[in-house]
Structures
1.
Amino acid sequence: MKTVALIVAAGSGARAGDGPPKQYRLLSGKPVLRWSVERLASHAAIDEVRVVIGSDQRDAYDAAVGDLSLGEPVIGAATRQESVLAGLQAIGAADRVLVHDAARPLVTAPVIDRLLAALDEHDGAVPSLPVVDSLRRGEITVEAEVDREGLHRVQTPQAFRFAPLLAAHRDAPAGATDDAEIARGAGLSIALVKGDAQLFKLTYPDDFSRAERMLGAAGFRTGMGFDVHRFALGDHVWLCGVEIAHDHSLAGHSDADVALHALTDALLGAIGEGDIGDHFPPTDEKWRGAPSHRFLSHARDLVTAAGGTVEHIDVTIICERPKVGPHRLAMKRRLAEILRLPMDRISVKATTTEQLGFTGRGEGIAAQAVATIRI
Ligand code: MG
């Protein structure tokens, strides 16, 4: 079953004040668009993410998310409705689609789970929260009370079966403000599922500090990992994703990159997701000789899907030989690439054990890692 997330990011965001469109402004150090792209792309049920952008926004798009492997961005149109239709047509075929506004950066995995589950029974599903404030109608003075009973605040992403939504959009009269409205107009059944306060829309300048407070209110978690591999015949070892010539290799089911294994376990530990063996069983032939960066990328995606951000990692490699120092910069670069982190958030250290113990006798290499996650 193919599920695509379509993020509408074509607007110019006039109400959020001067400067670049709000989807390209920084929120806690990351472009607004990148928050939802990362969270949607790392969800296990989502196969592809496409973004609809303004015709003059290609450079801003590349700067914000160009390093991520997304489908080609789609050029939007004058109205949101036309932009969504352009995006759906560019996708062409899929089973399910999540349509999302870039101005709601703090997407959470449980909302996506609830939306997709609802598609088993319905053509569409929207996240919503009950209205708790009292409502009044009027321009300057109150002219009427509005009963809030049965009223909901509707958010995005909104999930749909793909083909019926595309057909509804093709036939829709102009002027609809949201996809559920268009879908309902075409007679599709739309479920309400529980939304999340974090999914609020960045509209006014103050909303940026509110979102940053929500992110700041997030806690920090720490995970640790430890791994050992023994030496075997061979002429190179892999450490932190870097191949180093040596008079032995490390034995293991994968490429035996002991440092990446410790680091993968540290990330998994921080989000309580078990250990590397749970995700990549050594009994599974699929992982024979596998490059260990795949394990680390997977752990990184699980952190993102859990709503977390890797803040810092610290790796210690324990061996007498090979000498780590000459490769340390290359290792940090490789980790920065895999984890999509700036270099100053990555530490790689090495130590010997004064020729004591198995590492001291040169029987193998051990590695420890600590990961700090904001979540
Ligand atoms: Mg291992």
2.
Amino acid sequence: MAVDMVLKDGIFIENGRETVRSVAIEARKIEGIYKHGDEPRHRDSIDCRGLYILPGLIDIHVHLRDLKESDKEDYETGTMAAAAGGVTTVVDMPNSDPPVLDKKTLDEKIARARELRYVNVGFYSGISSIIEKFDVQMIRDILGLKVYPHAPLDEDTKYTRERIRECTRLAVASDLPLLFHPDLPASMKAPKNMEEFFLAHSCEDEVKSVQSFIDAKVEYEARLHVCHVSCATTARLIQENRAEDTLTAEVTPHHLFLSGGDFPHDDGLAKMLPPLRSPYDNKMLMEGLRQTCAIDCVASDHAPHKKWEKTAPFLKASSGIPGLETTLPLMLTEVFEKRLPWIDYLRVCSSAPARILGLETKGILTPGYDADIVLARIQEGTITGENFFSKAKITPFEGRRVLARVITTIVGGVVVFDNDEFVTGPGIAGKVPVQKS
Ligand code: NCD
Ligand code: ZN
Ligand code: ZN
Ligand code: ZN
């Protein structure tokens, strides 16, 4: 019997070391890893000499917009950006228009994504102000519950201690992780200047918010995930509260590699929430990711906005930047420049995010796991927003030198993206919605 495909003689990471191996794919799964000459008979093959064979990135924090915000991004452009960026699974946030607070909206998003997808797409739901309104029918199709204390999805919600406890209990009852944007409910009116904006989203507030969610998590033995940690102090607090796998956290590439002082902040180029912090925070976040286990994984927080929303004066500009096409080049550059060991790269980009959301057959290249694979090579280049497949083309990483390039992206055994081109149409590869195994 011949297998579907063999990826031949690529550079494969085994026990943290580079070695040459071939990867066989059969029925959307990895069939086996072979030494040169031992490969099974196959119907199709790709010559991977000089290419790294890596697990696709699993990005558990993206905003693909669509529905009423299709002008910012839709499931087609968003998942094309993912595939081009070597991201084979994305998990879509509920702060869309309309927000995901009911099954009807969730089903609409699922239907759109199913039709337009190029990669695997999973979903989160928000929690409406009246907690009893939560439709348990959604549980099967979502990977977590997400809340925004500073900007509730349901307008009249106040994130008091009681509300946080209520959301935590719902997560436990649903057997889902509770994810949250760590920040406090807005205490002042709209900021009048830049200083007020940064003050309204301070590290102190981030820490206080994380502490309040940890308190509820401990009380109810919930699973808690902290989104986009941006401060050294927050990383320390999370580290002090580690307990098995019940407290996890993510960091974005921009909070790892960029600091506020790098930008004049006259427009929205580098405006996002949480804001960019200091070089010391950058350093401690990387340490949290690599050494102290305070932070489990990298997530892009891909947050596309329209061009005019990003070129507007800082206070008026929208928060959020595209990230699906920059995470892999930036992270692999760390590996190629010897600042990040392969073991850490594979963990923070693929295996840890899969584990956090209970995706038991994703995130590792081993027999029986899904054939979600990226072929990449060492190649010097610069990040250029104009070349993004995302509708959002303004990035604070513009012009940054990187050493890695995605050549081919394979989703569930199907070659989707190859040498700058899409070789399948939408709606063919990948699964929507991604469900817990
Ligand atoms: C995100 C968005 O635009 O949806 N913006 C951002 O600055 N990160 C929302 C969020 O992740 O908090
Ligand atoms: Zn061979
Ligand atoms: Zn957020
Ligand atoms: Zn976000």
